[in-house]
C-alpha cells in the first residue's frame, strides 16, 4: 500500500499512522518526526529548521523534498509506505508525483481525517499544558491551523479529482477512528 494521511495538526494523524503502518507492514514516514529528530540531535539540518518549526511555519520545499526523496529511496519503502505530513503544498504534490513516477509506482489512497477544528485546538492547548510545551502557545496553535487551511487543505481537492480521496471521521476514541480507517482501507485494497 502507498498511502498519504492528511488532516490538520492535532487530528491524531501520528497515532493513526503508527497503527495503519503496523497493520499493513509498511513504514510510517513523518516529515515532522524527521525534522524533530534532527533538531534534537542538533544536526546542521536541525539547526536550519529549528526556528521554522517553533513558529509553526512550513520548512521550504527544497529542504523538505530532498528529505522525502532520500527516505522513499530506502529499501523499506520499496513495498509501500504511509506518508504523514507530506505533501503539504501543491509543489510537494508534484514532487511526490515525480518520485513515484521514477519508481514506477502509484498512490493507492489519500486518507483525510476530518475533525472539528475548535475541538482540535482545545485538545492541543491541553496537551501543551500537560507536556509543558511552552512554545505551543494558543497563537502558534491557531497559526498552524490557519496555515493548514490555506496551504494543505486544498490538496484534498487535487486528490479527490484523481479519485484517491478517502475521508474518515477523525473524532472519537483512537480505537473507534482506527476501526473506521481500517474499514475504509479494506474497501480500497479490494477495489
Ligand atoms: P507535523 O509533525 O507534521 O505537524 O510537522 C511539524 C512541523 O514540521 C510543521 O509545523 C512544519 O514546520 C514542519 N513540516 C513537517 N512536514 C512538512 C512539510 N511537508 N513541508 C513543510 N514543513 C513541514
TrEMBL record:
Q: Which reaction is catalysed here?
A: AMP + ATP = 2 ADP
* Domain of life, per lineage: Bacteria
Where ATP binds, per the record, is at: 10-15, 127, 172
Q: Which residues cross the membrane?
A: none
List the SUPFAM superfamilies hit by this protein, alphabetically. P-loop containing nucleoside triphosphate hydrolases
EC number(s): the record gives 2.7.4.3
Identify the metabolic or biological route this protein is part of: Purine metabolism; AMP biosynthesis via salvage pathway; AMP from ADP: step 1/1
User: Per its database record, what is this protein's job?
Assistant: Catalyzes the reversible transfer of the terminal phosphate group between ATP and AMP. Plays an important role in cellular energy homeostasis and in adenine nucleotide metabolism.
* Protein name as it appears in the record: Adenylate kinase
Q: Give the organism, scientific name.
A: Pedococcus dokdonensis
Organism classification = Bacteria, Bacillati, Actinomycetota, Actinomycetes, Micrococcales
Q: Which gene encodes it?
A: adk
